[in-house]
Amino acid sequence: MDTLLVVDGANVVGSVPDGWWREREAAAERLRDALAAEGGQSAVSGPVEIVLVVEGAARGLGSVPGVRVESAAGSGDDLVALLAAEAGAEGRACVVVTADRGLRARVEAVGARCAGPRSVRRR
Prior knowledge:
Blueprint: E1 3-8, H1 9-13, H2 24-38, E2 48-54, E3 67-71, H3 76-89, E4 94-97, H4 101-108, E5 113-115
Parallel strand pairs: 1-2, 1-4, 2-3, 4-5
């Protein structure tokens, strides 16, 4: 079974002060495309399923081959935690990419590993 790589889009985009706040959807789109190009291999070795969780102005961003985009109806953190919990319940390995300490504690409690935003390449 592939490792589930869940990327906290808002947190990863916000980790680099490149003007993302002016065009949040475009910043999320750049992250999605970079994830698709590299296949998550900088964060996880082996077969991986990548899920990018977006919220706010980035909601509605479409999926591309290699990256499934999930738009959070409310809090992106809640959706990331739910995906990690579902993976844990299935006995599936899960890695969550975020620097958010509170979210890290939530997903580690359900068996996920965490990686920081630098573990995924930004282009």
